[in-house]
Write a structure and sequence with these properties.
This protein is of the alpha+beta class and 174 residues long. It has 4 helices and 5 strands, in the order αββααβαββ.
Length: 174
């Protein structure tokens, strides 16, 4: 089996961790690739910083992009991201409430954008959500997303990122 984005190597299974099948993982990464093509975005490149994320809710796929993937995306999503900056109770994990998007950078990332878009369209999200991202999820998202998850009503986010076969699990703040 070819791994997404040309990655090579054996698939490592972790005992006791329920993972998606290789076929489900591959199909989800392929769906992101098709989204990029349809949207006229460049193919994924590890050094580009341009990220696409996808979540499925009620058999609908919601894609998110980082705010700088195109000038159009930056303008089109600014208002939505600003709204959610005010919606989320950021303390904890942050020490103080952010004053602008630079203080809550995860809102400018594809992971948060896909979740917010799904919530805005569906009105709610399941308690457990699975996400696929074509780039490895950064430490900013790992640190800030628990507060966003709490506001969205998501207890646990399972993230398959950067072509990895084993998910990263992010839990909402209590």
């Amino acid at each position: 089996m070819l791994l997404p984005f040309g990655m090579k190597g054996p698939i490592k299974k972790t005992p006791g961790v329920i993972q998606k099948s290789n076929k489900q993982i591959s199909e989800s990464y392929d769906e992101i690739k098709r989204f990029r093509e349809k949207a006229g975005l460049k193919p994924y490149a590890i050094d580009s910083g341009d990220t696409v994320a996808a979540v499925k809710v009620n058999d609908r796929t919601f894609f998110g992009v980082n705010s700088t993937i195109t000038k159009e995306s930056q303008k089109a999503t600014r208002e939505l991201r600003q709204k959610w900056l005010k919606e989320v109770q950021w303390v904890p994990p942050k020490k103080s409430s952010p004053k602008h998007l630079g203080h809550a950078q995860s809102l400018t990332h594809a992971e948060s954008h896909s979740l917010i878009r799904a919530f805005e369209k569906e009105g709610h999200l399941p308690q457990k959500v699975t996400m696929f991202v074509d780039r490895k999820t950064c430490n900013i998202c790992r640190g800030e997303m628990p507060a966003l998850l709490k506001r969205l009503g998501v207890d646990e986010l399972e993230v398959y990122s950067g072509g990895l076969e084993k998910p990263l699990v992010i839990k909402a703040t209590k």
